[in-house]
Design goal:
Length: 379
C-alpha cells in the first residue's frame, strides 16, 4: 500500500472553537506549508486550548479540502494535519497530534521532564512499533507552552532523531518540528534543503527549480508516482534539477533501508546510475525480499559494468548507513509524513496530480524560482 499519511494520523476530539486571530495565522501558515491545489480550501479547527505554568497553547486540526475530489455527496476529500501552537512564543508544531492522558497536568518543568523521559518512551514505542527514547533539551531555555523534544527511534540499523512538541501540561504531543508561525515555511525548507545531502541527478546545476524527492524503493506509491512524475520533471529541461533523499519506512518495508544504502553507494561512484537503479528496484519491487535485495543490486552492478570493489567498500558500512539515517532525520525535520514527497524550492507538491504539478512548476519557474512569489491556485 502507499504510505500516504501513516496510521499515526489518529482522530482528534473536537473542542469548542476559540482564538480566531491565531486561527487566521495558522491558516496562512498552512497555505504555504501544504501543497497548493486548484479549488483548495484550508480549514482550521481548535480542538483544545489551555493556559499552563509556561504560557498558553492551542491544539488544532488543519484540513486542506479539495472539493473537486470529493468521494460522494456529503463526504469531502482532504488532507488532515494536526498542529500544536504556542501562542506566546509564536511557534507552530505541525504533524501528527496525539492527545495524552497524564495522571495529572504537569505543574512545572521538573514534572514535565519526568513525564517526558519516563512515560513518553513507552507510549511512543507502542504507537510506532519500535523502541523509542526521548531526550529533554540539553540547553536550558525559558519555559514555553510547547517544549521542543527529540525522540530517538530505533530502525534496526541505528537511531533516527525525530522532533516532537509537548504541551507544558503534558496533555498534547505533536510528532513534528517547531516552525516560526510568522515565517513562510517554504523559505525555511529551502534553506534546509540547500545545505542538505541530496543525491542529485547529474547536470542542470544552475536550474531555477531544485526539486527534491523523498522516497522509498519498496513503496508501491513511490513506484506509481515515479512513472507519472518522471516525464513531468523532464519537461522544464535544464530549468529543473532533480535529486533524491532516502526516506525508507523501515517498519513496513523490510528491505527498503538496504536498498537506500545501496542507492547512496551507487550515487557516490556513478551519480548518473542512481535513476537507473531506482527503475530497477521498482521493476523488481514485487519480488524482492530482505534475502534477495543484495543479489538484485549486485546484478545491477554487473549489468551496468560498475566498480563492484568500490561499491563493496561503501555498502552497509557505518558511513553509508549513517548517511541514510541522517537523510531520514532531514525528512522528519521538513515534515515528511508520507512517501513519496516532492519539494520544489521548498514547496511541498501535491501527490497523484501530475497535471497540477506541471502547472505549478511552470508558475514557480516564471516567478524566478520562488514559490511564495508564484501565482497561487488555492483559495
Amino acid at each position: 500500500m502507499t504510505s500516504r499519511f501513516s496510521a499515526l494520523l489518529l482522530a482528534l476530539v473536537a473542542a469548542p472553537t476559540a482564538g480566531q486571530g491565531v486561527q487566521g495565522d495558522v491558516r496562512r501558515f498552512a497555505a504555504a506549508y501544504l501543497p497548493d491545489l486548484p479549488e483548495g480550501v484550508i480549514e482550521v479547527r481548535v480542538d483544545a486550548s489551555a493556559a499552563t505554568y509556561a504560557g498558553t497553547y492551542q491544539a488544532m486540526t488543519i484540513v486542506r479540502q479539495d472539493p473537486a475530489t470529493a468521494v460522494k455527496e456529503g463526504e469531502r476529500a482532504g488532507e488532515q494535519l494536526g498542529a500544536l501552537v504556542d501562542t506566546d512564543a509564536r511557534t507552530i508544531t505541525p504533524g501528527v497530534l496525539l492527545p495524552l492522558s497524564p495522571p495529572k497536568p504537569a505543574a512545572d518543568a521538573g514534572a514535565l521532564r519526568s513525564f517526558a523521559e519516563g512515560t513518553l518512551p513507552s507510549f511512543l514505542s507502542n504507537v510506532m512499533g519500535a523502541r523509542v527514547r526521548v531526550r529533554w533539551p540539553s540547553v536550558p531555555a525559558r519555559p514555553t507552552a510547547v517544549v521542543p523534544l527529540t525522540a530517538e527511534l530505533s530502525t534496526g540499523y541505528g537511531w533516527v532523531k525525530m522532533p516532537l512538541g509537548l504541551s507544558a501540561d503534558g496533555r498534547q504531543l505533536a510528532v513534528g518540528a517547531a516552525w516560526p508561525l510568522d515565517r513562510d515555511p517554504r523559505e525555511v525548507r529551502r534553506a534546509l534543503l540547500d545545505s542538505a545531502d541530496v543525491l542529485w541527478d547529474p547536470g542542470h546545476e544552475q536550474a531555477v527549480v531544485k526539486l527534491v524527492e523523498f522516497s522509498d524503493y519498496q513503496c508501491p506509491g513511490c513506484k506509481r508516482a515515479w512513472a507519472d512524475y518522471k516525464p513531468v520533471f523532464a519537461q522544464p529541461g535544464e530549468k529543473l534539477r532533480h535529486g533524491m533523499v532516502n526516506f525508507p519506512l523501515v517498519r513496513n518495508h523490510p528491505w527498503a533501508f538496504r536498498a537506500a544504502v545501496a542507492g547512496s553507494c551507487v550515487a557516490a561512484g556513478a551519480p548518473g546510475e542512481l535513476v537507473n537503479l531506482k527503475d530497477e528496484m521498482y521493476r523488481l519491487q514485487d519480488s524482492l525480499t530482505v534475502e534477495t535485495v543484495d543479489d538484485a543490486v549486485f546484478g545491477f552492478l554487473l549489468q551496468r559494468t560498475l566498480d563492484e570493489a568500490a561499491f563493496r567498500a561503501c555498502y552497509m558500512k557505518d558511513a553509508a548507513v549513517d548517511k541514510v539515517l541522517r537523510q531520514m532525520e532531514l525528512g522528519h525535520r521538513l515534515g515528511v509524513l508520507a512517501t513519496p514527497s516532492y519539494f520544489a524550492n521548498g514547496e511541498l507538491l501535491p501527490f497523484g496530480k501530475p497535471d497540477v504539478v506541471a502547472a505549478r512548476l511552470r508558475a514557480i519557474i516564471a516567478a524566478g524560482g520562488k514559490p511564495e512569489a508564484a501565482n497561487s491556485v488555492a483559495h
